[in-house]
Design goal:
mainly alpha; Alpha-lytic protease prodomain-like; Alpha-Beta Plaits; 2 domains; three-stranded mixed β-sheet; 69% helix
């Protein structure tokens, strides 16, 4: 529950920060006709949508498992992450089109010192949000948090490029403004593709990472009673996995003793490996020569 409260705080802070930035960027971009600032404003609008999706997705994912959802509601995070990626992609296409038109028709804009102020304020706010969200993601691994942290980081880089375009326009170099707008749109689109693929993998039940699987197998093999492991399967549940596999133990053991080994392993894996949500172990007898 502490994890979901932390994600909730991060999404609310993101919404507040991005609403303020959208207002500032939108007004300044409109009055100066700066394509890079307008693109940045679109980016902030997308960030607001992302924060709202994070809030909703986290709220659903926080619900405990029930009779209709035996493995919980963790995949809600990935459904909403996919919605975020689609919105980001559409926004990137629109920004790319408007910036390209401005470049082709050589549109100019009016330099304003407020453009510089907005860029500096944006970098400060976004850097703070990035550090805070990254800290939470390390403590509570979560795709929504990871997506938001990356978005905040990307915004810092994007706005820095915007700042460079503003300063160059002061020297009468207007070409960079449209180029920065195009670069921003490409950056947003690439980020949206990465988030989409990460969400798609989980929703399509992609297998557990080899590194995590090896952690489980190493732990199991550290028990001398386990003679062999087969039929390893995994299913993603939110940012965690349910795993199942078969172990072979001495066939001379009693049913109670052989299942006690499995029960102990299930608890040990669930406690020691945070990526694992639930472990189910089937026990088979093996012939052991005396």
């Amino acid at each position: 529950m502490e994890k979901f409260q932390a994600i909730k705080r991060a999404s609310i802070l993101g919404m507040i920060g991005n609403c303020c930035l959208l207002l500032c960027k939108g007004i300044i971009g409109f009055f100066t006709n700066s394509q890079s600032m307008i693109a940045d404003a679109f980016n902030s609008a997308g960030d607001i949508f992302s924060s709202i999706m994070t809030f909703i997705g986290n709220k659903i994912a926080a619900k405990p498992r029930d009779d209709d959802h035996n493995l919980g509601h963790g995949k809600a995070e990935y459904i909403y992450s996919m919605l975020i990626s689609i919105a980001m992609g559409l926004m990137a296409v629109e920004v790319f089109h408007s910036s390209l038109m401005a470049l082709l028709f050589k549109e100019k804009y009016t330099f304003s010192i407020f453009l510089v102020f907005v860029c500096i304020i944006t970098i400060f706010i976004k850097l703070s949000l990035y550090l805070y969200t990254s800290m939470l993601n390390k403590r509570y691994p979560n795709l929504l948090l990871k997506a938001n942290a990356k978005d905040h980081r990307n915004d810092c880089v994007i706005t820095f490029l915007n700042l460079v375009a503003c300063l160059l326009s002061f020297a009468g170099i207007y070409l960079i403004d449209s180029i920065v707008g195009i670069l921003i749109s490409i950056w947003i689109f690439v980020t949206s593709i990465k988030i989409f693929l990460a969400s798609y993998d989980v929703l399509m039940d992609k297998s557990i990472q080899d590194e995590t699987k090896q952690k489980v197998l190493d732990l199991v093999k550290s028990h001398a009673e386990v003679l062999k492991v087969t039929h390893f399967n995994s299913t993603p549940i939110g940012y965690q996995y349910q795993i199942s596999f078969t172990i072979f133990v001495d066939g001379n053991l009693s049913t109670f003793d052989s299942h006690a080994i499995a029960n102990h392993l299930e608890k040990e894996i669930d406690e020691k490996i945070p990526e694992i949500y639930l472990t189910v172990i089937h026990v088979n007898p093996a012939i052991v020569e005396k």
